[in-house]
Design goal:
The complex is a heterodimer of chains A (about 230) and B (about 90).
Chain A (H helix, E strand, L loop, with lengths): L10 H4 L4 E5 L2 E4 H22 L7 H20 L8 H16 L13 H31 L8 H36 L5 H32 L1
Antiparallel strand pairs in A: 1-2
Chain B lengths: L5 H19 L3 H21 L4 H15 L1 H17 L2
Helix pairs in contact in B: 1-4, 2-3, 2-4
The chains are: A mainly alpha (about 230), B mainly alpha (about 90).
Chain lengths: ~230, ~90
């Protein structure tokens, strides 16, 4: 693909996912590998941290407790009584996406969330979780009846609105992170060394953390709306 | 009928995809106006109630990020046009 007509500039190598290798003809993206790396790193970090918990927390334990408590507070504010119950799901999303969004500042690493496969997987899991939670809370009858409100002929609009949720949810995160990485790659081509640094600080750290917060809050909102 | 060469059609396709990508980014107007409106209202609220600054800033950022999403969709479509249509 040579669409920018710039000499020696291949945007695809700089931004977005690239197939690292193939297993039985199925390409495996490098973003997937970085995502697995983040998962394993988080598991090892959690194991090391929870191995010797103390009543009077140390500095690191204190910081992680504050982070988890703030996630629980946000969840509690949007769905009463769900703070502790939703923590495994919501906390996983917040930690993984937050870390995925800011890992792009490290050299040679790409954001796993700059891959539509990754964000779509998260959007679909939130979609399935919220619908399953709604069926569990309201019963199958109440869940189906929810699509016929306020009138019966609103069914197609309600169905479309429900199906648009995971798409808009995942495209928002993907577009922000991928757009940022494209801009950083362009800046690194034109003004290498100087211009990418403030752009990385803006797109990878600030926008990345804000988008992780947005994704988490929207996930909570979708779950709480579906179960009402 | 005039037979057009494949090269010519390819060039037309690329040009059309690039123009389409440029046109898609017009949607950025809406996102920009929306974000600026939210920021202006947040400045007004902070001026009226400076002690609520932290909460107002968080709410403004969340609202702006949601308002931004239409612009982001347009951006994604522009990138799709650039990346995938032009092979």
């Amino acid at each position: 693909m040579h669409f920018f007509y710039l000499a020696n500039f291949d945007i695809e190598a700089q931004a977005g996912p690239q197939a690292a290798f193939e297993i039985f003809g199925i390409p495996v993206n490098d973003t997937t590998l970085i995502g697995y790396g983040i998962t394993i790193g988080l598991i090892i970090f959690a194991r090391l941290l929870t191995r010797n918990l103390e009543i009077v927390p140390g500095r690191l334990q204190n910081a992680m407790e504050m982070l988890l408590e703030s996630i629980m507070d946000i969840t509690e504010g949007m769905m009463a009584g769900g703070g502790r119950k939703m923590l495994p799901f919501i906390g996983t999303i917040a930690l993984f996406i937050g870390l995925s969004n800011i890992i792009g500042v490290l050299p040679l690493l790409k954001n796993p969330t700059a891959d539509l496969n990754m964000t779509l997987a998260f959007g679909l899991s939130v979609f399935i979780f919220s619908n399953a939670y709604a069926i569990k809370n309201k019963g199958l009858g109440g869940y189906v009846k929810g699509f016929f409100e306020p009138m019966a002929f609103m069914l197609p609009i309600n169905l479309l609105g429900e199906l648009a949720k995971p798409i808009s949810h995942s495209f928002r995160l993907f577009g922000n992170v991928f757009g940022g990485s494209v801009l950083i790659a362009l800046a690194a081509y034109f003004v290498p060394g100087i211009l990418p640094v403030p752009l990385m600080a803006w797109f990878d750290i600030f926008i990345g953390l804000v988008q992780a917060l947005i994704f988490t809050m929207l996930a909570i909102a979708y779950i709480s709306i579906a179960s009402e | 009928m005039v037979e057009l060469s494949p090269d010519f059609m390819d060039t037309i396709l690329r040009a059309a995809a690039m123009i389409g990508a440029g046109l898609a980014l017009i949607a950025g107007i809406g996102a920009g106006v929306g974000q600026g409106y939210a920021a202006g209202k947040a400045v007004e609220s902070v001026a009226r109630q400076p002690e609520a600054r932290g909460l107002i800033t968080t709410t403004m950022l969340v609202g702006q990020a949601v308002a931004e999403s239409t612009g982001i969709y347009a951006f994604v479509f522009a990138l799709i046009l650039l990346f995938f249509i032009i092979l």
